[in-house]
Amino acid sequence: MSTDDELRAQLDDLLGADTDTDSVLAAFERAPSLLAVCEGPDLVITALNDAARQVYGDRVGQPVAEALQAPDTERIRDWTEQTFRTGRPVVDQVWRVAAVEGDDVDGWLSFSMVPSRAGDGTVRGVVTQAVDVTERELFRIRAEQQVQDLQHRLDLARDNLVDLHDALLPEGLPLAPGVELAARYLLAEDGARAGGDWFDAIALPDGRIVVVVGDVVGHGVRATVVMGELRTLFEERVRPDGDLVAALELLERRAGRVPQARAATVCAALIDPEAGTLTYCTAGHPPPLVVSAAGGATYLPVTGSGALGSGLPFVLAEHRLAVDDIVLLYSDGLVERPGRSPGENTLDLARVAADAVRQEEPGGGERVVQRLARAAVEQLTASSGYDDDITVLAVRRVRLPEPLQMTVPAFPDTLRAVRQNLGDWLADLGVGQIDELALQHAVGELVSNSVEHAYEPERSRQEAIVSVTACLVPGGLVEIEVADRGTWRRPGPAGGRGRGLAMASGFTDDLHVTHDAHGTRAVLRQRPSTPVDLLKGTATAAVVTSAPMEMEHDGTIVRLRGTLDHRSADELRRRLSHATRGGTIGVVVDLGGVTHLGSAGVQVLYDEMIPGRDDGSGLTLVAPAGSPAQHVLELVRLPYASDHEVPPAT
């Protein structure tokens, strides 16, 4: 029996003897999709149309296992056998067809197999159909490539934003007499939304030091740029005289012209290490935490000043610091962690800070301020997670450092002693490794210069001496003097020896050399710093799901529930504007159901309150005593009522 006769018999069996099998056979043969029929437990190929023969070859009468032995057709064989074995269809399995000679691209077929059944329901074979999905697959490949390209651009933009953010923060903290400083900054999430936290420490020429932590509302490029602008303006104004109020008033004026700066919060402090005084202002920001040497932790009172743009005056408060007291400034990300109430968050921070101070000094030379900053970030984020940037700046009042004074014989073997003593003195100050290396090289060149060139060979060891004096002066400058009693010798010609002074000058910020009949005196100055831990990367702590914002509007009453943060800020602004009809009518906003009020939510409330308007329009905020919203509104000094009569929700 011929192949066509076998196929006609199958069609008669399947469709009935009265069916025009020739027409069906012709349609089968000319079908644009691949069609194949296999029968029996060996899955013998009993029918192939023209399209199928392009893939299977002319293999009618052969079992599938024998016909499809080539590596590139093994998957078709496996799908066919799976369908027969399980009795379940295999649908849309894509098979790649290698490009033939003269064609530029490969092709793709989508295979579907269905079992054919006998009259008793048992599987007797497999019918295969495959359609050309080359266009679909090419579209998918192009789409995936576009997604990859967009992801690459997004990653690059995110990295650039993080780099910009880091560049606008200080790379190090100054070394100032009478204080030790440490800072740690943790960027929220993985850097996709660089935030508005900023900090700085400015050593003043008179020995006092200014420290500040601020928080700009929002995330992204705009928040990063405004953050950098506020930090720069604050530093430039406070550096000459330490006037905190004048610096904050400058930021207030800027906030009046830059909407993104409105509702930004700042905590600034001026510390006089010698007198032991701390003068500070909390402009809508959480207050400083003071930890004693014994581990007692106390939050200082807020000063009553509002966030930038509130129009409230900047009020200062004072506190007396004992030696070894630590002042901790921090951003609200540390005390507004998800899943914890404001009271729990503040108690957590006080507990962790106290434990860090009480802890025995570990190996590795970690200072107590560094340990406190590290513990505050690591332990608190590990316990509850975090969803905002976190900044910690710790300042410890210490005794004024003793200067280094050495007088050594002008012999080569004394250079080792100079390096050892200078290294110990710099380490006690907390000088970073790069600055220490530069200073050691500079001093080594100056000492070597005196040893080699200052004295004649006949001078006695008692007369041929070099003195090294080092001190930390107000303003954060390390000043080191290397002096001898020898005879000045003019540097030799270029290319020869005598380049020590040039090398010493290159290692320092300033080098001044004088000489007279009594000897030579070289004074170098360097403004070293202690490094800052700028951290970024995906948070590893468990994610706490925040309740979504819900809003109920009933006439002139708006009830808010859930989380008001950067995720819901745009929706909150739109719906409040609708409720107040664009700020033309007054609305009472009940915040009693708010579980978290972030800085972005505060900015929306501030903008919608229309400060200064007395015609009854805008918002009246209601926050019950002890609620999360009341805690935040009290801190940022937004006016609110705690007992306003609000009808119960129906």
TrEMBL record:
SUPFAM superfamilies: ATPase domain of HSP90 chaperone/DNA topoisomerase II/histidine kinase, PP2C-like, PYP-like sensor domain (PAS domain), SpoIIaa-like. The keyword Nucleus does not apply. Pfam families: HATPase_c_2, PAS_4, SpoIIE, STAS. Keywords: Hydrolase. It comes from Nocardioides lianchengensis. The keyword Chaperone does not apply. The lineage of its organism: Bacteria, Bacillati, Actinomycetota, Actinomycetes, Propionibacteriales. PANTHER family: STAGE II SPORULATION PROTEIN E, STAGE II SPORULATION PROTEIN E-RELATED. This is Anti-anti-sigma factor.
